[in-house]
């Protein structure tokens, strides 16, 4: 028994390596059972994870495709047989994943690379592709318009799709015969170029209602109507005169409209009344004499004017603020009052015009007693009364 105790006491635990203990950490006593070293719970878990890692590493080195049924050849075949039409003119859905100063790269779920040039991003001329709303993450439908033979990159376009939609819209607007607005962006000796639905349209000077130059119309918006829409020939012709004629047809004599002073001349002021240029003659500004128009009006002023007359053939509209004055000279002394009372004064003017016309018709009817009509003291035409008939020696109506 003594010899057994001596033998057990002579057994020593294996020393711990320096790598397994943090520097400065106190030594922890390990259990000794029959001379065998026992690992702690954390140490057992680390040992298990290390064993699993070593086994996985060995499998990756010796048998990387073990348990995988999809081979690299299968992947290549799947990519090649993916049902994506890459013919020129085809539409394809893609996602923008990177933009550059020249355009954007598009992910079209294919092994082929796709690129959207900046000049194909939209109908307008832009300096930065983000001006067209092209940013990473945008999902859009594109048209394939070309392929770069050097690297087989597909060239995409949004402009082509937008052009088709714009031409279709123009055909629809022409069929509906509506008035649209176009911004003048250029011109030549024959007319001006206006931007309509994103397309460049031509407006001949013969179809511009006012005599002016291309420089004077630059950056201005004109009311227009379609004359010719020919996508095959790329011809888009519009008319300002036709639009003006439609607008003027809605202007009745005595109507009050809001206008903006465009320019001043010694004989009057030209007023823009919703795309139509009207002349406010110096004699129609006020009942009082106006020696210098600039003392009453300035370019850019907004005012209310009344329609006196309009010549649809020549596209001329005559205006007046004189007829809107509550008392003579108010346009010079208190123009604000004139604009506040404009509708009321215009109504009085229209009533006077109607009464004058009725009086004129009544005078004509006096020479035609058989008509059986007469004019009342209020200026209203009506059936000939018995009193009136007796006074004038005319037969009464039965």
From TrEMBL:
One of its GO terms (molecular function) is mRNA binding. GO terms for cellular component: chloroplast stroma; ribonucleoprotein complex; ribosome. Residues 89-159, 177-241, 254-322 form the S1 motif domain. Residues 389-398 have a biased composition (Acidic residues). Coiled coil: none annotated. Residues 373-398 are annotated as: Disordered. It is found in: Plastid, Chloroplast. Keywords: Chloroplast, Plastid, Repeat, Ribonucleoprotein, Ribosomal protein, RNA-binding, Transit peptide. GO terms for biological process: translation. Its main location: plastid. CDD domains: S1_RPS1_repeat_ec2_hs2, S1_RPS1_repeat_hs4. SUPFAM superfamilies: Nucleic acid-binding proteins. Residues 373-386 have a biased composition (Low complexity). Belongs to the bacterial ribosomal protein bS1 family. PANTHER family: 30S RIBOSOMAL PROTEIN S1 (PTHR10724), SMALL RIBOSOMAL SUBUNIT PROTEIN BS1C (PTHR10724:SF7). This is Small ribosomal subunit protein bS1c.
């Amino acid at each position: 028994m003594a010899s057994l105790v001596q033998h057990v006491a002579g057994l020593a635990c294996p020393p711990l390596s320096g790598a397994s203990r943090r520097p400065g950490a106190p030594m922890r006593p390990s259990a000794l059972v029959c001379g065998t070293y026992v690992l702690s719970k954390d140490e057992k878990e680390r040992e298990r994870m290390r064993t699993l890692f070593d086994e996985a590493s060995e499998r990756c080195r010796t048998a990387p495709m073990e348990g995988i049924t999809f081979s690299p050849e299968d992947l290549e075949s799947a990519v090649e047989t993916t049902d994506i039409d890459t013919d020129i003119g085809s539409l394809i859905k893609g996602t923008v994943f990177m933009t550059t100063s020249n355009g954007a790269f598009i992910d079209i779920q294919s092994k082929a690379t796709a690129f959207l040039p900046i000049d194909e991003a939209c109908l307008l001329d832009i300096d930065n592709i983000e001006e067209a709303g092209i940013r990473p993450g945008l999902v859009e439908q594109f048209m394939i318009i070309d392929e770069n033979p050097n690297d087989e990159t597909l060239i995409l376009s949004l402009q082509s799709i937008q052009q088709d939609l714009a031409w279709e819209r123009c055909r629809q607007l022409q069929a509906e015969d509506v008035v649209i607005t176009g911004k003048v962006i250029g011109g030549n000796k024959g007319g001006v170029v206006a931007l309509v639905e994103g397309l460049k349209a031509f407006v001949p000077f013969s179809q511009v209602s006012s005599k002016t130059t291309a420089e004077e119309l630059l950056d201005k918006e004109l009311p227009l109507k379609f004359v010719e829409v020919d996508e095959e020939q790329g011809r888009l012709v519009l008319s300002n005169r036709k639009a003006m004629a439609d607008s003027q047809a809605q202007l009745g004599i005595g109507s009050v409209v809001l206008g903006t002073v465009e320019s001043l001349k010694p004989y009057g002021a030209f007023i823009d009344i919703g795309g139509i240029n009207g002349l406010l003659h110096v004699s129609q500004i006020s009942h009082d004499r106006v020696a210098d128009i600039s003392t009453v009006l300035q370019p850019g002023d907004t005012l209310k004017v009344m329609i006196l007359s309009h010549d649809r053939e020549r596209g001329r509209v005559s205006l007046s603020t004189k007829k809107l004055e509550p008392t003579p000279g108010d346009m010079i002394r208190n123009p604000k009052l004139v604009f506040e009372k404009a509708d009321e004064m215009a109504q009085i003017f229209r009533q006077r015009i109607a009464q004058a016309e009725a009086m004129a018709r009544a005078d004509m009817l006096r020479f035609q007693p058989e008509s059986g009509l007469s004019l009342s003291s209020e200026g209203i035409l009506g059936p000939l009364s018995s009193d009136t008939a007796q006074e004038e020696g005319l037969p009464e109506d039965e």
